[in-house]
Design a protein that fits this description.
The chain has about 525 residues and is of the alpha+beta class. It is about 75% helix and about 5% strand. It contains 12 helices and 6 strands. A 6-stranded antiparallel beta sheet has the order 2-1-3-4-5-6, covered by helices on one side. It is flat, with a radius of gyration of 64 Å. The protein starts with a strand and ends with a helix. The model has no long low-confidence stretch (mean pLDDT about 80).
Length: about 525
């Protein structure tokens, strides 16, 4: 291995140092404490995992981590590599010629890779190898030579591999013993072979005689093989003929069975033909009665369909009548409410016409305007009711037209029993009550805020009346304003009472229970 360069970053006293080495021996010179020994310690820590310092002592003061990069040329493959080690990130190995990461990061894998490139046995302790052989501290190079023989033996025997040489010598002695045993065995085999060669002439004569006998036997065997071949061909021909005979016998048996099946099928067909002939005669005889039955079935089906359509039209007519009556009641109620709102608008319009002429009553006008703003939800509700009234009137017109058309079609008297009409009527009322409960909830949600607003409006009207009282004597025409305020309070109270009465009527549990009881009786 030939070390090419060493780079130190925040390693002990070196902040950022780079050193390059030439082939051969290199000398590092400098003052005491300049960091000469640190370079050797960095090589030992990076390549051999040897250090006499803790991790914190390796990091330069003020830094978070220390890093060392050592590049070298390996004598294993003559390629240049770089080993980087960081106190926080660990090892990274690079192939500088390919500029690629070797993917070796664990300490055990790095040491195994280093042993291969250093050319040392796989079980070598790299830290001990550096401490006792490569990186001997300055001034202590000759210390081991001054030790006692037993101590020197413990140090230098591993370095000089004395134990390996002893094992090799022992193995060589075993090889020499094995070689001598093999020579003795081969000598015995040669003596045995020489003894066997003494009878070589007799063996040659026996060989010639046996060779003649073998030739005669071979000729006889060839003649017998020819005869056997002829016999085998004759046997194969006879076997083929026997197979053909068996095939013909099997076909004959199948044809006989097939003929029997066909005969039986023919008999069954004759029986079936006789039965079909009798059935045709019977159908011809019964055809008029069957046609009359089919005509009766068709007429019955037509009558059933007409009956079903008539019942459906009658039921639809009854539903439309009930809906029409309900819509008429709603229209009359909405018309009454519309008339009330119209009177209220007229009164408010008259009152507003008098307000601009009264400069001295500006404060009272502002309070009255505030009261009118509070009446805006009622106006919106009035507009909504007017829109609903128009829709109900249009629907009423359509329903009247539809009823007239249905009355033209329903000339026949209604066959539905009276009890079914009563049941349907009660069910419709119950459905209306269920639908009215949601309306009652809506009215209750409106009456609460409306009552609070009416209370505030009534209090404001009282305040306005108290302020108007001194002005009535010199200005009698202001009494109309007082009347308008009183009529507004009375109208608001009447509306609230109407809403509460409708809510009470819709939420009355006794009415629903009575209708349910009548429906069960029906």
């Amino acid at each position: 291995m030939e070390i090419c360069s060493v780079t130190l970053k925040n390693f002990k006293t070196h902040a950022d140092s780079h050193f390059e080495f030439c082939p051969g021996t290199n000398a590092i010179c400098g003052e005491n404490g300049a960091g000469k020994t640190t370079i050797l310690e960095a090589i030992a820590w990076t390549l051999f995992d040897h250090s006499d310092y803790t991790r914190g002592e390796l990091i330069r003061t003020g830094a978070k981590s220390a890093q060392v990069a050592v590049s070298f040329i390996s004598h294993l493959d003559e390629r240049q590599y770089e080993v980087r080690r960081c106190t926080s990130r660990g090892y990274t190995l690079y192939d500088l010629q390919l500029n690629s990461d070797l993917g070796i990061h664990l300490l055990e894998d790095v040491q195994q890779w280093m042993r291969a490139h250093l050319g040392v046995p796989p079980q070598t302790d790299l830290a001990r190898l550096f401490a006792e052989t490569i990186g001997i501290p300055q001034g202590t190079f000759t210390t081991d030579f001054l030790r006692r023989p037993n101590d020197r033996k413990k140090i230098f025997d591993p370095i000089l591999k004395v134990e390996e040489y002893k094992q090799t010598y022992t193995q060589m002695r075993d090889l020499e013993t094995y070689a001598r045993a093999q020579v003795s065995t081969l000598s015995q085999q040669l003596a045995h072979y020489e003894q066997q060669l003494a009878d070589w002439a007799d063996l040659q004569e026996q060989h010639t005689t046996l060779k003649t006998v073998i030739a005669t036997d071979a000729a006889q065997i060839a003649d017998l093989d020819s005869k056997i071949t002829q016999h085998q061909q004759a046997v194969e021909k006879l076997t083929g003929i026997a197979q053909q005979v068996q095939t013909l016998e099997s076909q004959s048996a199948q044809l006989t069975l097939h003929l029997a099946n066909k005969s039986e099928a023919l008999q069954q067909l004759e029986v079936a033909w006789q039965g079909a002939k009798a059935a045709v005669e019977l159908c011809r005889a019964k055809r008029p009665a069957f046609q009359a039955y089919e005509e009766a079935q068709a007429a019955l089906k037509t009558l059933s369909e007409q009956r079903r359509q008539q019942q459906a039209i009658a039921k639809q007519r009854e539903d439309l009548r009930q809906t029409l009556s309900s819509r008429e009641a709603q229209v009359s109620q909405l018309q009454g409410q519309m008339a009330t709102f119209t009177e209220l608008e007229q009164a408010v319009a008259q009152w507003q016409a008098l307000v601009p002429d009264q400069d001295r009553l500006e404060q009272q006008r502002q309070e009255t305007s505030h009261a009118l703003q509070q009446l805006a939800p009622l106006r919106m509700q009035h507009q909504t009711l007017q829109s609903q009234l128009a829709q109900r009137q249009a629907q009423h017109t359509r329903l009247q037209t539809h009823v007239a058309e249905l009355e033209q079609w329903a000339a026949q008297p209604d066959p539905i029993p009276q009890l079914e009409q009563t049941q349907h009527h009660l069910q419709t009322k119950l459905s209306q009550i269920e639908a009215g409960r949601s309306l009652a909830v809506t009215l209750q949600s409106l009456t609460g805020p409306a009552r609070k607003t009416g209370d505030r409006y009534q209090q404001q009207v009282k305040t306005a009346q108290m302020q108007l009282e001194p002005l009535l004597t010199p200005h009698p025409d202001l009494r109309f304003v007082q009347q308008v305020l009183e009529s507004g309070v009375a109208l608001h109270g009447e509306l609230l009472q109407s809403f509460e009465a409708v809510t009470t009527e819709l939420t009355d549990p006794a009415a629903a229970a009575s209708l349910q009881s009548q429906l069960q009786d029906a």
